[in-house]
Design a protein that fits this description.
two-stranded antiparallel ribbon; 4 helices
């Protein structure tokens, strides 16, 4: 069976000024490309098998998603840990061969320039889109 499942959510956030509904797919990916559970519970989130599987799954999605990807983490510490690990083992480099990578900055004043650069890459037909890592 496919590790990708779609669901209807009873609570909706609508930001029509950002994107229209036909431009977005929201889903939960429960298993990575290697069948490792993508479970971000506190007990598992710092497990290297989880981090590697998540990173490799994002690489694979980067190959098939035609434009931009927003990748949400449940916390800044987990996002930082994964990105640091992926920088060390080459996963970020593999993603960057497909799409430029952007990371949500912690400082509020840095957010707008970062997201604008992300939008520019998405709009650039010479670029394969971009990946934006952010925290909830």
């Amino acid at each position: 069976t496919s590790p990708i499942h779609s669901s209807d959510f009873p609570i909706r956030y609508e930001g029509p000024h950002v994107v229209s509904g036909d431009q977005v797919w929201v889903g939960v990916v429960s298993k990575g490309c290697d069948s490792v559970a993508l479970n971000s519970s506190y007990a598992r989130r710092f497990n290297l098998d989880y981090q590697n599987s998540l990173g490799n799954t994002i690489v694979n999605f980067s190959r098939i998603v035609p434009h931009g990807m927003l990748v949400f983490f449940p916390s800044y510490p987990l996002m930082d840990t994964c990105l640091d690990h992926w920088r060390g083992n080459g996963i970020v480099e593999r993603i960057e061969k497909l799409k430029p990578v952007f990371q949500e900055p912690r400082r509020k004043g840095d957010f707008n320039p970062t997201i604008e650069a992300f939008y520019q890459k998405i709009a650039d037909p010479k670029c394969g889109g971009a990946v934006f890592f952010c925290s909830l």
